[in-house]
Design a protein that fits this description.
With about 170 residues, this protein is of the alpha+beta class. It has a domain of about 100 residues: Protein of unknown function DUF192 (Jelly Rolls, Sandwich). The protein has 3 helices and 8 strands; from the N terminus they run H-E-E-H-E-E-E-E-E-E-H. The strands form 2 sheets. Strands 1-2-3-8-5-6 form a 6-stranded mixed sheet. Strand 2, helix 2 and strand 3 form a beta-alpha-beta unit. It is globular, with a radius of gyration of 25 Å.
Length: about 170
C-alpha cells in the first residue's frame, strides 16, 4: 500500500462520520411532539370567584405561560358575569392583544393589592398590543366589553378573592 492511499476501512469510516450528524438530527426531530398552531379554544381553565363590592365574577385562572398566551382565543361567547383572570409571573408593565379573539372585551389592569388601575376596551382580531400605563401590574381581568361600565366599576376599586401574585424579581 502506498503511503498516500487510505485503507477501505478508513474511507468507509469517514463517510459514516459525515452522515452521523444528519442521522442524529433526523432521530431528534422524529421523537419531538408536533408543533401545531392554536386552532381552537383552550379547554376551560379552573375558576375562582372574585368580588368587586357586591358584584360576583366567575373567572377562569390563566396562571401559566401557555394559558396566558392563548387566553380567550377562539371563544364565541362568555357566560354572564364570567371572564378570564391572568395572573402574571412578575408585577410590571403589561400589554395584551386580541389575536384570534372573536369576543369584544374590556380588560382591567390590576396592581398587586387588587386595585383596578386601568380599563381598556379591546376590539376582536386586533393584533396591536394595548400596553398598561402603570408599571406595577400583577393581574389582568378580561370581561365582555362594557361589563365594567354596566356594573358601575371603575379604576380605583378593589377586587377580592384574587390568588396571590408572584413575588417580583429584584
Amino acid at each position: 500500500m502506498s503511503p498516500k492511499s487510505e485503507s477501505p476501512v478508513n474511507i468507509i469510516e469517514k463517510k459514516y462520520l459525515k452522515i452521523l450528524p444528519l442521522v442524529g438530527v433526523f432521530l431528534f426531530l422524529l421523537i419531538q411532539p408536533p408543533c401545531r398552531a392554536q386552532s381552537g379554544p383552550q379547554p376551560t381553565l379552573p375558576t375562582t370567584e372574585l368580588r368587586i363590592g357586591t358584584k360576583k365574577i366567575t373567572a377562569e385562572i390563566a396562571d401559566e405561560d401557555h394559558e396566558r398566551s392563548v387566553g380567550l382565543m377562539f371563544r364565541k361567547s362568555l357566560a354572564t358575569d364570567s371572564g378570564m383572570l391572568f395572573v402574571m409571573d412578575d408585577s410590571g408593565p403589561v400589554g395584551f392583544w386580541m389575536k384570534n379573539t372573536e369576543v369584544p372585551l374590556t380588560i382591567a389592569y390590576i396592581d398587586p393589592a387588587g386595585v383596578i388601575k386601568e380599563l381598556h376596551d379591546l376590539q376582536p382580531q386586533n393584533e396591536k398590543p394595548v400596553p398598561s400605563r402603570f408599571p406595577n401590574i400583577a393581574y389582568a381581568l378580561e370581561m365582555p366589553q362594557g361589563w365594567f361600565s354596566k356594573n358601575n366599576i371603575w379604576p380605583g376599586e378593589r377586587l377580592d378573592g384574587l390568588p396571590k401574585p408572584a413575588t417580583p424579581r429584584p
